[in-house]
Amino acid sequence: MKKIVVIIFSVSVSVLVGYLFLLRPNVSEEDFTTIHTTQNPQQSSIFDHNNIQIISKGLDIHIEPFAQYKISAIILSRKRYTNKWTSIISPLDFAFGWGEVSKPENIEHIKVKQTMRWYRYRFDNECAITQKYISEHSSNHHIIPANSNIRKAVLLAKKNDKIVLEGFLVNVSGKYKGGNVSWRSSHSRTDTGNGSCEIMYVTGVKLDTNVYR
Questions:
Q1: Quick check: is 21 in a domain?
Q2: Do the Cβ atoms of 125 and 161 come closer than 8 Å?
Q3: What does DSSP assign to residue 161?
Q4: Which pLDDT tens digit goes with each residue over 9-64?
Q5: What's the number of domains the chain is made of?
Q6: Domain span at residue 185?
Q7: What's the Cα-to-Cα distance from 184 to each of 114, 170, 190, rounded to whole Å?
């Protein structure tokens, strides 16, 4: 009986290890430069990039890139989503902070909550930066991974990680189960309210020294 229990346990452990291994992304290259989170995101307009079509689970949409985009930031919060059509292409959101918002002495005074693909923040009286500064140096990003390896990489990232994302800001339009759908990205880091989140098609991720593509 003990042998059977040991065998079952060993098999279970092996299955678990194998499953966790499948969830790990493949490292494309290593980059030992420091991730600096003090600079604003880099954005440049593009005019001739081909649209990207995705057909999956009743969804038939086109992703239209309108700007190249790169952000180096700290993850203030992350949120997985599994409902609605948007989660088919975008499994999670990151609430990012950069500049003074990314410094530990300020982060400890800022509380971030994500829900329904929005983010909200509160800060206490001991915070050294203003509400306006926080608003202009933080943002909620809807993440659309370009492939399965990128998907694994972004799902690996956690709160308080420093991260670099490269890719495109995009708009999305098409059909879901016969009905028209659309999703439009912010063009600016200084807007607020409805439509102020970035929709990012991610083609590259850097976590620590590992780069994923």
A1: no
A2: no
A3: -
A4: 555 444 433 444 467 999 999 999 999 999 999 999 998 889 999 999 999 999 99
A5: 1
A6: 28-212
A7: 19, 7, 16
